[in-house]
Amino acid sequence: MMRENLTWPKRMVFALTIFSLFFGAGNLIFPPYLAFQAGENITKAFPGFAITAILFPILGLVSVAKAEGIDNLSSRVGKTFSFLFTLVVYLAIGPCLAIPRTASTSYEMFASAISADNKVIEAVYSIAFFSLAALFSLRPEKLAGKLGKVLSPALLTLLLILFLSSMAIYPEDAVMDIHQNYSAAPFFQGFLDGYQTMDAAAALVFGMVVVLNAKTLSEGRNVDLVREEAKSGFIAAILLFAVYFALVVIGRVSGYYWNDVSNGTMLLSNITGGVFGQFGKVFIAAIFMIACFNTCVGLLSSCATYFEKLFPKPGYIKWLMIFAVSSALIANAGLDAIIKASVPALSLLYPIVLILIVLSLFPYKSGMNIIYKLSTLFAFIPSLLHVLSSYLESFAKLDSYLPFSESGLGWVVPALIGLSIGLLIFSIRSIEKK
To answer: What kind of architecture, by CATH, is found in domain 8-343?
Structure first.
């Protein structure tokens, strides 16, 4: 039977849904700060950022769709690994880091807009934020109608207004200082900064919910879901690139006029205040709240769907409530604490995530699990070494011997060695079978 395609209006809704799932807290605050810190090296840093923040997330969606789930993809390494890795990814991208970050980031802007900030207000905000997000998440297969048709267009409209307003005051002589991390290897630093969006790992988490929405949009027709994810994902990638580019421009303008900042949130707050006056606080708060809410809904839905599959007895709604409540509690630890905790966790997870995505692009054959095993193992050990080097000097010395370790990418060469050994073993075994 011949496969059908989604109509273009539905494909656009699907693309906007994918965009809204990815574009959350980190996606707002890191690109402008990247522009501020990279300065005149932004043209070298941004391509690295785009690889881990745009290319790999879209490839991740396709890889999960092809493998029919993150657990199937990771099981190519081994069943025990698959269970542990999938569990850790869902917890990290879910209630332990990413979901609380959506509330804590948006709360900072909300508190600024109402000129009030205390623990009671933060607690009330968290409860209201996650209660509404849980309500939106009750029907995960219906997210396209809520996020793709309404909230994403609203978010893009606000971002376009902010970009055009920034262009109106763009200085002709905008020469920016290059901060230390971006002076020696700006491309690699941009590559690492893309980790902070968490989108490549989130792509593996979003996989099941994205497929559910593709099925809903297909309305029972025989649609090639993997192909539609790829097409809609490509459109979402273009939107992400355009928005990131706009945020980089905004960051440069803001950093030029108001350069005493320590994060992307301050950059965005400063420029909206400078352009729109007192209303700017409300304007930027609206952008943050919509972006963070979209991602929160997607993550809650994805985590509850996975854990219902893993442990069916509590049921989807109870899992949803568990994650909403636990995320609200962690969110009150504050944005800085959550970001600080995310750095070592992402440094361990991301190399494995990227390797699994790359390997999934090639047809899987029986016996290729040795390639997956050695590639991930050889990537994980240097990543663990790099994380430990931040705490113990003896590990720092070992880490320094690895190529690209100074750029935080000491896992790359060992992973390639593991890949080569795995390919060699697989080839020898294949010849022996013949």
So the answer is: Up-down Bundle (1.20)
